[in-house]
Amino acid sequence: MKRNLNYETMSGTQKKSALTLVLVGFQGSGKSATGNTILKRRSFQCGMGTIATTVSITRDEIHHGAIKITIVDTPPLSSKETLTAINRDLTKHEQTTAVYVIVIAIGRFTQDEKNVVEEILSNRSMQGRTLFIFTRKDELEDLNCREEDRLGVWLDSTPTIRKWMRQYKINNYFAIENTSNKYDAILEMIDVAVNMNNQTKRNCFGKKIFREGVPLAVVIPVTIVVFVGILVLVVQNAICSSM
Questions:
Q1: What is the pTM of this model?
Q2: What residue stretches are annotated with the AIG1-type G domain (predicted)?
C-alpha cells in the first residue's frame, strides 16, 4: 500500500498532536539529520560529528495522512539527566505520551555511550515506547551477506544492543541513510510509532479506568454487606421484641 507524508493544513480538531517522536542520540549520531529526513526538509541544524549543533530542545511538525506528528530534536545525550530535562520539556508542552527514537550510528558506539543508553533505557518513561534507528546504513555494504540480512548480522556483532532489545522488549528497529532519497524505512518507522503510541494511550486509559473503578468495585460489595448486616440485626431485634 502506498503511503505519503501529507503537509496540508489540517482542521483545528486534527491539529491536536496524535504522536510525538522524540529523537535521542549522541553527538555525531545523525539524530538531527534523521529529523530532517523524516520532515523531508532541513529544519533542525546539523553539522560535523565533532561539533554539537543542537543546544536546546526544538520541534517541528508533519502530517502523516490524518495524523499530526511532532518531531522533537534534543541536545546530545551526555547522561541520564539529559532525559530528565527532555521529559520535563514534554510535560510542559503537554506531550506526556511520546515514542522515543534512540539514534545510533552504525560503526560508532563507544563504551561511555553504551553506559548512558543503559541508564536511560532503565527509565520507566521509556519502557514500552522506544525504538532504535541506526544511521549510516551504507556502512553495512561491506558485510558479506544478503542486503536484507546485513542489519541483523551487524546487530549480532553488537551484543550489547541485542541484550537491550531482549531486556527492554524493544522489537522495532530500522536502518536508514540520511543522504538517500529512499523513505521506505522512515514510513515504516512512522507507522510502527503510531501503533506504539496508540497502544500506550490505550494502556494509560485502561489504567485510569482501573484506578477510578477500584473504589466502586470495593464500595458496592461492602455497602451490600453492611446493609444485609443491618437488616439482620433489625429482624433479630423485631423477633426478640415480639417474644
A1: 0.74
A2: 19-211
